[in-house]
Structures are given as structure tokens and as C-alpha cells.
Amino acid sequence: MNYLLPHLSTDFSEVRDTTLGALVRHRLLSKILSGDLTPGQVLREPEIVEELQVSRVPVREALKQLESMGLVVARKNRGVSVRTLTDKEVSDLYAFRALLEGFAGQQISLRGAAERTALAARLDLLCGEMDDAISQDDAKKYYHSNLRFHWAFIEVLGNEEIENTYREITQKLHLARFKNLQDLAHRKQSNDEHKLIVAALRDAGTPAVPKSCAALLEAHVKQALVRLRQI
User: Fold this and answer.
1) Within a 10 A sphere around the Cβ of 76, how many other Cβ atoms?
2) Which stretches make up the HTH gntR-type domain (predicted)?
3) 63-80: per-residue pLDDT in tens?
4) Of 136, 146, 167, 191, which one's alpha carbon is 20 to 30 angstroms from that of 54?
């Protein structure tokens, strides 16, 4: 799930110039994305200061940054808490995600056979990982492989603006998606759809293929929202 987090360099010359606020934001974002901090949970400044051994200034800076990212909300006299998305927000984000993934699938399908075959092989491995996770009834393992499956299309597309936008959408949606994949039947159906997407990618341009990779990707994301609503 590393692609969901802002990049922090291991180069000490760059780390030296990284603000404490950015480091605190990174830590809090990691806790939100791991589920250690859940929607509605209050983020108490004194507790964060004590835990991270920093002053209040970088903590406030980090919380403001997370608020601008749409991941926490500040309310007068109620403090700051992890944001809970409304049903409409979840639906809107899924629709946007479907649009981006469909576009990525469409563009990649137009590329050469070698590039498509290489991506298909990578996706096959991830489908295998998800099959293993299903057999082990390991929702967390499945979730991480699922994230990597979808990110592979965005990464191979190579458009930095789309990468940034997709990352923001995934950060906001991750708890809803993880909840969706807690259901074993949903995981099985999801991975069956993944395999159809890979087959369509591998056979892109073949007239006999009933549905394009782009159409299957978009339908898969929309179907994920349907499954979430069933929970």
C-alpha cells in the first residue's frame, strides 16, 4: 500500500529539509490507511504530541494538511476527527475511480503486444496472490494485492496527474473498499472479474473478444460499489 503514502526520501540531505509537520502528517496518514485510526475517531492534539514527542505546532500543521486532503474534519468545540464519507461521496468517488481506470485500460489496450503481455503477466501473479488469500480467508492480504492490481494500470499509464488524483481517491475510499472485501463471496467474485480483465488485456485488438479491457475495468469498479451497498 506504499503508493498511497506521500514519498519520503531516505536521502539525509532531503530528510533534513523535511518539515516536522510533513513527518507527523505521514505518520497520521499511515495510521488512517492501516485502519488504526477509524472514521469518526477523534484525534487529540495532546495525545499525538505525547506519542510523537513533538511540539503542538507540527501537529497542528499536519492536521490542517490532512483536512485539506479531505481525510479529517475539524468542528468547532468538537476538535478534529477522521472523516466519515457520506453515501453520496462514496458513490461519487467510485464513479470517478471507474472513469480513471476505464481510461487507463483503454489507453494501455492500444499499446504494443509486448507491453500488454508484460502487464498481463504481472497481473496474473497478483490474481494468484488473491486466490491464495481467498483460500486462506485472509481479507487483509487480499486487499493489499487488490490495491496493487488496480494501481498497476495507473502506474503503467504513466500520467502523473492521473496518478496523483487516483491516489487521493484511493486514500479516501480505502476503508470502504476494505470493508467490501471482508466478505469472502465478494472476494471470490472480485477476483473472477480481475481474471476477465487480464484476459481482455492480453487479447486486446482481437475482434472475437466480447468486451474490452476498459469496459471490464469500469464495470468491475461499478460492481464493487453494488457489492458494498449489499453489506
Assistant:
1) 5
2) 18-85
3) 999 999 889 999 887 889
4) 167
- Report the distance separating Cα 224 and Cα 183, nearest Å: 12
Q: To which residue does cell 488485456 refer?
A: 201
Q: Which residues lie below 8 Å from residue 100, measured CB to CB, with a gap of 6+?
A: 154, 162, 165, 166, 169
Grid coordinates standing for 69? 486532503
Q: How far apart are CA 85 and CA 90, in angstroms?
A: 6
Longest dimension (CA), the chain: 63
Pick the CATH number of 2-82 from 1.10.340.30, 1.20.1050.10, 1.10.10.10, 3.40.50.720: 1.10.10.10
Cα separation, 12 vs 150, in Å, equals 32
Dihedrals phi, psi of 215, to nearest 5 degrees? -65, -40
- The reply to whether the predicted model has a pTM over 0.70 is yes
Contact (CB, 8 A) for 94 and 225: yes
Paired sense of beta strands 72-75 and 42-43, if any:
unpaired
φ, ψ dihedrals at 75, nearest 5° = -125, 140
| Answer CATH for 87-230 from 1.20.120.530, 1.20.1540.10, 1.10.620.20, 3.30.70.260 | 1.20.120.530
CA distances from 109 to 81, 87, 164, 205 (A): 42, 33, 22, 8
